[in-house]
Every structure is written in C-alpha cells, then in structure tokens.
Amino acid sequence: MSEESVPPEWDVIVVGAGPVGENAADRAHKAGLTVAIVEKHLVGGECSFYACSPSKALLRPIHATRASQRVQGSEGATVDPPGVLARRDAWINRIGTSDRFDDSGQVGWLDHVGITLLRGAARLTGKLAIEVDGKPYRARRAVILATGTEPTVPPVPGLREAHPWTNREATTSRRVPDRLAVLGGGVVACELAQVYAALGSAVTVVELADGLLGRNEEFAGRAVAEALERDGVDLRLGTRAESVSRLGPSGEVTLELSDGSSLTTDELLVAVGRTPATDGLGVVEVGGQLDDAGYVRVTERMEVKGFGDDEPWLYAVGDVNGLALLTHMGKYQARAVGDLIGARAAGREPDERTTVPWAVDAGSPQVVFTDPEVAAAGLTEAEARERGLRVRVVDLPMDKAAGAGLQAEGYQGQARIVVDEDAGVLVGATFVGQDVAELVHAATVAIVSKVPLTTLWHAVPSYPTMSEIWLRLLEEYGV
C-alpha cells in the first residue's frame, strides 16, 4: 500500500459532536490520546440548537414572569413574545433572520484543545475503521458512537405528507402560529405546549394515554395537566390521531381523531418519542448488536455487544444506547468511557469506581421545565414495587417548607419520597412546584450514595429555604 493511500489515524474517533460526543472526546484527549470527532450537521448537536438550550431559553422568561406575578408588589410582569424569541435566537446562535446557525464557538473549542473535527456522515467499515462521506479513517484504540436520537414520526396516514413540526421546528420557529396541535403527552409535548400557549397560540394536545408525563409519578402529570388547562390548552386525553391531511404545502392541517371528532390547526407538532440514529451507521455490519428498537446494545462499561471475547474497541454512549435519554446521563456515560479507554491505552487496570456508569440503574434525575416544574430522581413508587422492593411513600404539600411561601403567595406543589423499608434508604423522590428544579440534586446525591435516612436527618436545611421540605418529609416518615 502506498503512503498516500494510508488512511489518517487517531487513537480515538468519536462519531457525533453533540454534548455527549464532546465529553467523550474531551475525556479521552485529557488522558493523553489523540482524538478526532465526526459531525454531519452542527457541532453542539441536538441539545445545543434544537432541544435543551432553545426550549429552556423559551421557557425561562415565562417562568420568571409568572414567578413575579405570584409575589405581592411585582405582579405587573408580562411575557413579550418578540423578546422571548430574540432571547432564544441568541442562545442558539441564529445567523440573522435565516434558518442557519453558527457553531463556530464549539468548533473553536475543539481547535483550542486539539481535537480534530471531521465534517460529514460516518459509517463503520471494519474494526477500528470508518468512512466519512466515503473517505476512510482509522482509530488505533477505539471508536465511540454518540449519534443520539431523532424525533419519531409515527405511521399515521397522511402525517408525514403534512410536513409536521418536530422539536427542531418548534424550538426554532420565528413564527407563533394562531393554532397549534401537539401529538404526545411527554416532556417535549408539555414544555412546548406551554411555550406556545404563553406566546399566544391556541394549543390543543392530543395524547393517547389518559394522563400526561406517563413516566413520572401520577400526581406530577395531573399537576401539569391542570396548569396547561389554566393556560387555555385544550387537552384531548385518551385520544389518538387516525389520519392527517394538509391543505397545500403550508395550509391548514386537519386531524381526524379516534373519538370521532376532527381538529383543524395551523401547525402540528409531533412529540411522541425518539428513534435511535443508527440507520446507515454500520453497527451490525461490523459485528455489533442493535436491539429491536434500533438502539445499540452495550455492556455495563458501554462496550458494544456482539464481539465476544475480542478486545473491546467499539463503544456507544448517550441516547444511542437507549439506557437513559437525557443529555446529562449521556455526558456521564461519556466521561466514564473516556476514562476507561485512557486507562486501557496506558496499560492500567480501569478503576471501576469511575469507569462503570452504574448510577443509570439507580434512576436518572430529570427536570420537566413546565410551570409547575417537575423534578425527580430515582424510582417512582410503581418502578420500585416492580423491582420487588418493600417501600413506603411519604407525600407532603410543598408549602410545608417555610421557604415556599416566600417564593410565591399561596404556593402550590407536592413532594414525594419513596423509601426502601428494608435498607432504610431513599430510592426515589419527586417534587412538583415553582422553582423545585434545584431540589433534585440533593435527592440524587442521597439516592446514588444510599445515605441512610438516619444520616440524612443530620443534613440540616437552611432556613427559610424550600430545602426545608427535606426535614418535613423525614419528620413525616418518622426519623
């Protein structure tokens, strides 16, 4: 083989330059390895431009306005739709009035730390070998897949032909439609329904289940449903779309629903789940395994399954492995894998304390940034019982914490802890209410660390803060 035909090599190649891929690349690079990262769209990924950042940029002015309205003396705040959209555009680095975005900041970081960026679509072609838009490259140590997921569009007759919004269009639209229909009742559906209702759209949510936020405690879904209805959102629960049609390329959209009614809207947002971005990636062709849904199957160390006793070389982190579809959990997996590959490359025995992301099994922390917020960590009551745990549940209204009344007049919310009675530790916690997002990390620490409730009782909350709810929950439990 001539010198010119030898593919460029790095120690590690990461496929996907979203936050998860960036973390994996950074950790491997800090271990002294040379790293290249592949991205076919924008460096920063879905989270930076179409999901986490823009949705929270849209929601924060709504939260701040409503928080102000709930405090005597500052009730006059109002939402300014143009200002909200302008703030969102700043967060996603929109280029002028176009639909293009500037990822030069993220690219500059890669250049600064010495990580090589390869632009294009990647495909595995063999052990430690990939192609990017047909050009071959090789890794000496490992290839890490961090390609994430894509929005699911279900096979409803006429739905694809109606060119619906997904989270991408909904989080970046410069236009607030007069009417918006939302298919789905999960996190994306609830957050964006609330955004567009606050910006002036007449919003209708169509959800097959009988409640919202089905993966959370039932009381959390009820609280968000009541809030959306107060916002004027029309909830069609226990209902599905049977067919969809659109009048012309950008005309009205009509949905025929399972209850026999029809719904006409200006835009339709599909938010019914995610699909792993593994199509065309070549995982199976090189010997790796996918599950029935298309997610990459991995070991506890994020090694792709299917290679038997061969030396591990292919890893998958973040949404693409389906373990926890949350950016922060993917970044956690990525840090562990970067350390693992670094240790193996140096000939060291990997430290299981930092190279096995076992906390995924404890239940991922999550915040739903609706008003009220839903913040949860660990297992729900139902999940804990499904695992065979003997649990006790403690529920309290959030206003039992003195700090809640300072946050808002007539504060509304609820807290729940799920306790493993045999182990005497917390296995789940859910908080619903204004500003509860900052409570969830304390719950995460307690759950992951398996802190005995008798020890947790000595973690004294500051007065008067909302964290005082921890003391009240432990008192109610009987510690």
Automatic annotation (TrEMBL):
<feature type="binding site">
    <location>
        <position position="207"/>
    </location>
    <ligand>
        <name>NAD(+)</name>
    </ligand>
</feature>
<keyword id="KW-0274">FAD</keyword>
<dbReference type="InterPro" id="IPR036188">
    <property type="entry name" value="FAD/NAD-bd_sf"/>
</dbReference>
<feature type="domain" description="FAD/NAD(P)-binding">
    <location>
        <begin position="11"/>
        <end position="323"/>
    </location>
</feature>
<feature type="domain" description="Pyridine nucleotide-disulphide oxidoreductase dimerisation">
    <location>
        <begin position="365"/>
        <end position="470"/>
    </location>
</feature>
<keyword id="KW-0285">Flavoprotein</keyword>
<feature type="disulfide bond" description="Redox-active">
    <location>
        <begin position="47"/>
        <end position="52"/>
    </location>
</feature>
<feature type="binding site">
    <location>
        <position position="319"/>
    </location>
    <ligand>
        <name>FAD</name>
    </ligand>
</feature>
<feature type="binding site">
    <location>
        <position position="56"/>
    </location>
    <ligand>
        <name>FAD</name>
    </ligand>
</feature>
<dbReference type="Pfam" id="PF02852">
    <property type="entry name" value="Pyr_redox_dim"/>
</dbReference>
<dbReference type="InterPro" id="IPR001100">
    <property type="entry name" value="Pyr_nuc-diS_OxRdtase"/>
</dbReference>
<protein>
    <submittedName>
        <fullName>Dihydrolipoamide dehydrogenase</fullName>
    </submittedName>
</protein>
<dbReference type="InterPro" id="IPR004099">
    <property type="entry name" value="Pyr_nucl-diS_OxRdtase_dimer"/>
</dbReference>
<keyword id="KW-0520">NAD</keyword>
<feature type="binding site">
    <location>
        <begin position="184"/>
        <end position="191"/>
    </location>
    <ligand>
        <name>NAD(+)</name>
    </ligand>
</feature>
<feature type="binding site">
    <location>
        <position position="273"/>
    </location>
    <ligand>
        <name>NAD(+)</name>
    </ligand>
</feature>
<keyword id="KW-0547">Nucleotide-binding</keyword>
<dbReference type="GO" id="GO:0050660">
    <property type="term" value="F:flavin adenine dinucleotide binding"/>
</dbReference>
<comment type="similarity">
    <text>Belongs to the class-I pyridine nucleotide-disulfide oxidoreductase family.</text>
</comment>
<dbReference type="GO" id="GO:0003955">
    <property type="term" value="F:NAD(P)H dehydrogenase (quinone) activity"/>
</dbReference>
<dbReference type="InterPro" id="IPR016156">
    <property type="entry name" value="FAD/NAD-linked_Rdtase_dimer_sf"/>
</dbReference>
<dbReference type="InterPro" id="IPR023753">
    <property type="entry name" value="FAD/NAD-binding_dom"/>
</dbReference>
<dbReference type="Pfam" id="PF07992">
    <property type="entry name" value="Pyr_redox_2"/>
</dbReference>
